[in-house]
Amino acid sequence: MAGTVNVGTVANVARTVTGTVGVSNFPATQAVSVSALPLPPNAALEAGGNLASLVTLATQLQQLIELNRLILATLRADNLILASLAGASVNPGDMLDETTFQ
């Protein structure tokens, strides 16, 4: 470190200190353990497998959504077959409509 440091005034006369200070024994980086860092007062803590439960529920929800899509596609196909058997004009493209579940 180099530069000029003003160390105050004595009898309204400024004193200046010049020179360098060696810091070669100071490491460039410091290892810090994350577990040693303090948490904010309202920080959420994982306890009792809550996060794992949420992941499981999200996976099950995706499976239910896919199952609903399959059921809807089957119902559409059945309705088109019934309409065709009843003599109605059927457009096969009606089965290609995408359904969004939210």
Number of helices: 1
Spatial sequence of strands, sheet with the most strands:
1-2
Our measurement of the CA-to-CA distance between the termini, rounded to an integer number of angstroms, reads: 60 Å
| Largest beta-sheet details | 2 strands, antiparallel
Q: Write the element-wise H/E pattern from the N-terminal end onward.
A: EEH
Helix content: 25-40%
Structural class: alpha+beta
Count of beta strands:
2
Main features:
102 residues; alpha+beta; two-stranded antiparallel ribbon
Describe the structure.
The structure is a single chain. The chain has one helix spanning 50-85, and strands at 2-10, 13-20. By secondary structure, it is of the alpha+beta class. The chain has a domain at 51-89. The protein has a two-stranded antiparallel ribbon. 35% of the residues lie in helices and 17% in strands. A hairpin with a 2-residue loop joins strand 1 and strand 2 (13-20). It is built from 1 helix and 2 strands, in the order E-E-H.
List the helices and strands and how they pair.
Blueprint: E1 2-10, E2 13-20, H1 50-85
Antiparallel strand pairs: 1-2
Summarize the structure.
The protein is α+β, with helices and mostly antiparallel strands.
